[in-house]
Amino acid sequence: MATRWISFILILLLTAGCGGTSMISNPESVQTLQGNDKTVLIFWHTYNDKETRLLMQELIPAFERDHPDIRIKCINLANNNELKYNLIARASSGRGPDVVRMDIAWVPEFSHKGLLEPLNGFPGFNDVRDAFHQKVMNAGHYNDQYYSLPLNLFTKLTIFNRELLARSGYSEPPHTMDEILELVRKQHFVIGLGGLEPWDTLPYLYSLGGSFMDRDFTRASGYLNSDRTVRAVEKLAKLYKDKLIHLSAVTQNRDNWAGVRNGNLLLTDEAPWFFSLLKESDKRLALKQTLSVPFPKRNGTGSIIGGENLVIMKGSRHPVEAWVFMKWMTGLEGQLIMAKAGLIPTNKEAVKALNVSSHSYLYPYVEEVDDSFLRPPVKNWSKIEELYTVYLHQIFLGHLSAREGLDQAAEGIDKLLKY
Questions:
Q1: Which of 253, 259, 405, 410 is a plausible cystine mate for 395, CB 3.0–4.6 Å?
Q2: 79-104, pLDDT tens digit by residue?
Q3: Structural domains for the chain
């Protein structure tokens, strides 16, 4: 608790005097801009270093040229739970930033808590909404209102070691998850799994025929504890017991990516950022060492969607200008600028204009997005995620059978979905 309040105080100080992390290099110029009736928006984001350089050197200057009456002060913060708690505290007291680039999984909780401005009433909202696929807009939909605009998306692929596949007689990976697991067991290969959270495990469960909730996200019973899901979890837990699944979250060794490249692992799953952060020569080598393919689909469902959305925090002093900034960021020009860092656009026109080469590491990720699924957009998602992960740990460690653990998890999740 003390750590949370220390982080909160630090963010207060950052916001009070953030000239060093702002587009406005001279703090005194803020007063000058305000004196000239120019609006200053506070924008919190979680871009990495490469993305931040594009933001500061290209995107913000381009926006400010188009909108000379608006200036953007950018605050770069770590994407973790401390940021989430601090945002909740500040927005609850009406002292939050104007615009936030927020983890897509956080948006439902913030909208249910009444901490975000609804967007439906802003000028041109319907046209902006139609620029995106409805699936990605749904993350910010609550009580007939929309509370966010999707900014960038990513999904995960299965990434194989080419040499291990070839040694086993495969020029490409098996087409079903059951066949992949059979290959792992037959050849005593190892799968690198990041952890047991929904982000890590749901693509495997779905590929094995399992499920999580009903389509309306009202209950987990009958889905998470269905016979198919139980069998799927049993298969994965048995592989872990036989040391054929490496859980980096348990061993504190999170470099599954290196394990696949050097042949210690047959496969792992990952979003595109590892490729995007590599130098060009190392990227070419990584593409020779590995083969990235979509998760095997079962019932039309592929991998999981992650990403960030833009929101206007409740209490923003400049909601109209914030909307102008959000529209521009999610428009064609803004999306194509940030795509240079390997971020997948959400705007349909930008995706078409991106024209990713089939030889690019990004190509299979862009192709996979349409078949990927959102995490349930429910207000208690963080609690549901935690409960699910606790029970999967109990199952994998052998403290509960898959049936016992999933029955208890489904019952607990049903309760969280009711309030």
A1: 405
A2: 898 999 999 999 999 899 999 999 99
A3: 2-154+307-371 (3.40.190.10), 157-303+380-417 (3.40.190.10)
- Compute the distance between CA of residue 397 and CA of residue 389 in angstroms, rounded to an integer: 12
**Which residue do the tokens 């897509």 mark?**
104
pLDDT range class, residue 250, cuts 50, 70, 90: low
Indicate the pTM of the whole model.
0.88
In whole numbers, what is the pLDDT of the chain averaged over residues?
Answer: 90
Q: Which of 369, 215, 353 is nearest to 306 (CA)?
A: 369
Q: State which amino acid sits at residue 313.
A: M
The strand pair at 267-270 and 157-161 is best described as: antiparallel
What tokens were used for 140? 């910010």
